[in-house]
Amino acid sequence: MADLVAEVQKISPVTRFLLGSSIGVTLAARLNIVSPYNLVFLKEHVTRHFELWRLHTSMFLGSMQFDYIFELAMLYRNSNSLETMYYQGRSSDYAWQLVFACLAIIVTTFFAIRRHSSSSCCLFPASKQATRVVVS
């Protein structure tokens, strides 16, 4: 156990936070501790019900499939290389860059999503002409 803790502590701090948040949020959803529906960004829930955790958890919820292992490996590789090469000794600058990028994504999503019904969100409005298929 001490070896595992030592290996985790070798990871750069911002990368460790990204991996820990992603693993924590995704495992909580995957193990049905929390419903994935309660973790995703839904504009109405954030603005009317003040469910502000959705701003954080929506950034870290993984795919919950086998591909998630590869997503984590890519996240580790890319984040660690950025933090140790480009932001060497300036982890706080890297963290602020990620905060601003996440804020930009949330603001863009907040204004881009149009609500069509109580059960679905979509980025693009539905077409004015609805086609009806009649099955005989």
What is the N-to-C succession of helices and strands? HHHHHHEE
Tally of DSSP β-strands: 2
Using only C-alpha atoms, the radius of gyration works out to: 19 Å
Number of helical regions? 6
Strand order of the largest sheet: 1-2
Question: For this entry, what is the oligomeric state of its chains?
Answer: single chain
Q: How many domains is the backbone divided into?
A: 1
As residue ranges, the low-confidence spans are 116-120, 123-133
Largest sheet: 2 strands, antiparallel
Distance between the termini: 65 Å
Write the SSE topology:
Elements: H1 2-10, H2 13-30, H3 43-48, H4 53-60, H5 67-86, H6 91-112, E1 114-115, E2 121-122
Antiparallel strand pairs: 1-2
Helix pairs in contact: 2-5
Can you walk me through this structure?
There is one protein chain. With 136 residues, the protein is mainly alpha-helical. It has one domain. Helices cover 61% and strands 3% of the residues. The chain contains six helices and two strands. The chain has helices spanning 2-10, 13-30, 43-48, 53-60, 67-86, 91-112; strands at 114-115, 121-122. It has a two-stranded antiparallel sheet with strand order 1-2. A hairpin with a 5-residue loop joins strand 1 (114-115) and strand 2. The longest helix is centred in the C-terminal third of the chain and has 22 residues, at 91-112. The protein is globular and about 45 Å long. Residues 116-120 and 123-133 have low confidence and may be disordered.
